[in-house]
Amino acid sequence: MIVAERKPMGEIIEMVQDCKKVLVLACRGCVTVCSAGGEREAEILSSLIRLGMKKAGKSIEVDTGSLVRQCDREYIDEIDQYKDDYDAVVSTACGVGVNFISNLRKDTMVYPALNTTFFGGSAEQGEWTEQCAGCGDCVLHLTGGLCPVARCAKSLMNGPCGGSVDGRCEIHRDVECIWQSIHDRLGSFDRAAQMEVIAPIRDWSSAGHGGPRKVVRDDLTV
Amino acid sequence: MSFDPAITLFSCHYTSQQSCAEDGKELEQLGFPASVNLVRVPCTGKLQMTTLLQAFEDGADGVYVVGCPTDGCHNVKGSIRAAKRVDAVRAALEELGVEGERVQMYHLPRGLHPEFVAKAKEMDSRIRDLGPGPFSS
């Protein structure tokens, strides 16, 4: 899922300080699962905006709504039910949602309530870790299903580096050396020899270094 | 400046039994502060952040929660969950520049105990020292 965190309240209050009425718009997709921008978090944010503005001596009306997702045109269309009612939409979606509203609704001012952080998963309740960098050229079949791009601090393609100690990364003892884990996992499948294959210099253009990326499926376009 | 604070207490069914004793008069007889508005809930673990924040929106100068001891909650982890949510509300208030002491969590024994009144007096004193809350006007 896409993992995100709420922005500091000072930033959000600054965004809406001149507004009289805003809609805090939750997304029931990824950010609901990572407890950053679902309906419950949107209700909390609405309350905090009201309290923050009251403390600043200003009045504001804050309503809360939600969309199934904020990254599909068909769901964005539902925003039209709120048309002209609000000075701004405060979106608790990831950055994709904020962009989509901005793309499709030229008359709607939209502010981001979240900082979008990474593609990750949750192995422990209340804890999310980065697992994928969305680099566009997956090498997981060569690395035992463990991603060196997202999970190695240096994104090394031929690791580990000299900073690997006791299976931990030199940046912090809490971080596993993913190349040690790749070695151990490949070994458990009797494929440790894969570690000796030198990965070629990587073309990072698919990772966004070649500009914004796009996927087109001709079989789905009409 | 002296003022009469408005304090909202959310207490679980088990730690607030004194509110039922003597036809509901025992708390008053024991000196429970008049500033504290007691809201009984089946378990503090069910309290959401929005409920605590709504109390501030409704004008409370302070909000506190009383739940079971962490190792003796009737619903196992209810009061631990409540404490986490109180911490989250405190952090959010501090982000808004509001004193975090305005929201507190207490873990008290179940049944009839003087600590229930003592903590109410402590909270009353704390909020009087802090003065009117920024949301209470």
How would the global form of chain A be characterised?
elongated
Mean pLDDT over the full residue set of chain B: 93
**Can you give the helix content of chain A as a percent range?**
25-40%
What structural category do the secondary elements of chain B indicate? Answer: alpha/beta
How do the strands and helices of this protein lay out in sequence?
The complex is a heterodimer of chains A (222) and B (137).
Chain A: E1 2-6, H1 9-16, E2 21-27, H2 30-33, H3 39-55, E3 61-67, H4 73-76, E4 88-91, H5 95-104, E5 110-112, E6 114-124, E7 127-132, H6 148-151, E8 168-169, E9 172-176, H7 178-188
Parallel strand pairs in A: 2-3, 2-4, 4-5
Antiparallel strand pairs in A: 1-6, 6-7, 8-9
Helix pairs in contact in A: 1-3
Chain B: E1 7-12, H1 21-24, H2 26-29, E2 36-41, H3 49-57, E3 62-67, H4 78-95, E4 103-107, H5 115-130
Parallel strand pairs in B: 1-2, 1-3, 3-4
Short description:
Chain A has 222 residues and is α/β, with parallel strands linked by helices. Chain A has helices at residues 9-16, 30-33, 39-55, 73-76, 95-104, 148-151, 178-188; strands at residues 2-6, 21-27, 61-67, 88-91, 110-112, 114-124, 127-132, 168-169, 172-176.
Give a verbal description of the structure.
The complex is a heterodimer of chains A (222) and B (137). Chain A is an alpha/beta fold and 222 residues long. Chain A has 2 domains: 2-118, Rossmann fold (3-Layer(aba) Sandwich), CATH 3.40.50; 133-205, no CATH class. Chain A has helices at 9-16, 30-33, 39-55, 73-76, 95-104, 148-151, 178-188; strands spanning 2-6, 21-27, 61-67, 88-91, 110-112, 114-124, 127-132, 168-169, 172-176. In chain A, the strands form 3 sheets. In chain A, strands 3-2-4-5 form a 4-stranded parallel sheet, sandwiched between helices. In chain A, strands 1-6-7 form a 3-stranded antiparallel sheet. Chain A has a two-stranded antiparallel ribbon with strand order 8-9. In chain A, strand 6 and strand 7 (127-132) form a beta hairpin. In chain A, helix 1 (9-16) crosses helix 3 (39-55). The longest helix of chain A has 17 residues, at 39-55. Chain A is elongated, with a radius of gyration of 22 Å. Chain B contains 5 helices and 4 strands, in the order E-H-H-E-H-E-H-E-H. Chain B has one domain (7-130): Rossmann fold. Chain B has a 4-stranded parallel sheet with strand order 2-1-3-4. By secondary structure, chain B is an alpha/beta fold. In chain B, strand 3, helix 4 and strand 4 form a beta-alpha-beta unit. The interface between A and B is medium-sized, with 14 and 15 residues.
